[in-house]
Amino acid sequence: MDISTLIGPTLPAGQPELRAVTATTIFGAFTRRGTSGALGNDTDHALLLGVREWADCVLVGAGTVRAEGYGSSDTPTVIVSGSLDLDPSSDLFNGTVAVATPAHSLDDASLAPRREALRSAGARLIPTGSGSAHEVVDAVRSLGYTRISCEGGPSLYAALFSAGLVDVLHLTVDPSLSGEDGPAGLSLDSTDTHRFTLEAAEWERDSMLFCRYRYG
């Protein structure tokens, strides 16, 4: 399948656009046995890499980095973390990495060893005020990253969707279920309804479904 077809139309370079890329089971679970690795197929993986190539940076939560074992990437990575609980010896830090963290995490004396270890590993620590979704995205864009690919996890997705900050959602629906699936759905921070328009849907012989939704 042509990955550019799945990615679809994009805004001109320099114009801000945030895309979320995820795979779920047929009933909306994001993980199986604790990670997303068992979901999707080769095309889904190629789509993830294709959106990374389009993006100026990958935005991802620290929990997802730990669970999925993120490694070094040619695309800069911005990790959202309040605890700064990241392994500075990870291969991830061989690439360009920033850690977006609330202001209190930069002032907390008990986190000083973690801050120093991350800086020594080459990470840039960027303050995000109270840590709201808007402040996180503003901090990322202050680095010059206008095209953002968000790869989760669910809590970061929930914050971004609640704030209406996701422009395009790439959703792969894996037609499977398991007793080892994680929780389904997102716990949004607001009671507002956020509606997306289906732009395209493609599927493969294994019944893997690739949907592209645009906000509004």
From TrEMBL:
Q: Which GO terms describe its biological process?
A: riboflavin biosynthetic process
Write down the Pfam families for this protein, in alphabetical order: RibD_C
Question: Keyword annotations for this protein?
Answer: NADP, Oxidoreductase
Q: Which GO terms describe its molecular function?
A: 5-amino-6-(5-phosphoribosylamino)uracil reductase activity
Q: Origin organism of this chain?
A: Corynebacterium timonense
Pathway-wise, it operates in:
Cofactor biosynthesis; riboflavin biosynthesis
Keyword Magnesium carried by entry = no
In its UniProt entry, what is this protein called?
Pyrimidine reductase, riboflavin biosynthesis
Keyword Protease: yes or no?
Answer: no
All residue ranges annotated as the Bacterial bifunctional deaminase-reductase C-terminal domain in the record: 19-201
The domain of life for this entry's organism is Bacteria
